[in-house]
Amino acid sequence: AQKVTQAQTEISVVEKEDVTLDCVYETRDTTYYLFWYKQPPSGELVFLIRRNSFDEQNEISGRYSWNFQKSTSSFNFTITASQVVDSAVYFCALSGPNNAGNMLTFGGGTRLMVKP
Amino acid sequence: DTGVSQDPRHKITKRGQNVTFRCDPISEHNRLYWYRQTLGQGPEFLTYFQNEAQLEKSRLLSDRFSAERPKGSFSTLEIQRTEQGDSAMYLCASSFSQAPLHFGNGTRLTVT
Q: What is the pLDDT, as a whole number, of residue B1?
């Protein structure tokens, strides 16, 4: 069985602070995929990143960066210099090898509030 | 590309009634997914189609739930004899083959 745990249910920061959202996963698959999605107040889930289990390189995209560590089964997400527009619920998700991973197991989400 | 469209946005129904939701995926996407999201939780996978074939169904999809994608384009999700526990946001998503999912805004169901 697969499981994703996002221990931080809510985080509040002041604009321009850096913030890291934690994600820990469990799976028996040797091939799997990890995702992060953003859900703003409008409700539509927005894809941010997908990584496969064989690629442990960290990734940076603008103010966003991701740290994947198989040794600790973690896939953490850092926002640098946070902005008010980053306020949303962020979900980490996991899938197995079938279908290249669009049958996702989501974590419970972390609500990020960025205050001006 | 107008994105994934879901209708209605909100539905309020009385327990025991049947409801049907519609999803129009992005036109060139061959895969269509249904997820359910209850308040304060992450989405849960329900089922998915590749073209018109329903290839996977979650154990969450009881026999009161049925999904169709008759021509490999739009899809419908019907819930028969609704129960209060069915109250949730029903999310549709689509993808072209194994590309990442594009989600719609969802249909919020409230069963009174």
A: 54
